[in-house]
Amino acid sequence: MIKPILIHPDPRLKKVCEAVDDLSDERRALAQDMLATMYDAPGIGLAAPQVGVLERLIVLDCIKEGAPQPTVMFNPEVLSLSDDLNTYEEGCLSIPEQFAEVTRPAEVRVGWIDMHGNPQEQDFDGLWATCVQHEIDHLNGKLFIDYLGPMKRQMMTRRSQKFKRELARG
Question: What is the number of domains present in the chain?
């Protein structure tokens, strides 16, 4: 089921999320709904707080062509970061139609629990590294615009508020 995506500013997007302590069927269903929502948007990542659930769950798929590679991560955590940096133009489904360059570690090792309750660890680089860091930031109440200077951040917030008002008017 496609879920509505929260639009910034929304106080739930700035909250630190709780760890998932039980992989119930309801949480697995939420993960599937989040994947459907992400693909429908379309996007390459989505965090639970973006659909109003303040739990540590993210989904991502950075494959643009070829077979999809949906990845579900419960309680993801960054285990290590490279010293090398990469700059990507980032966007966010909660800040529609706005993009800015953000510099992050080029490579990252992440640990998480998969849909079956198994612990996983993997190294990510390129777009995958940027995406997983962006989504984990959501779980910590941080948005990509928080990496920008105050003027640019305020401008993007105002645009997002306007977008939200227009959406509400239908």
Answer: 1
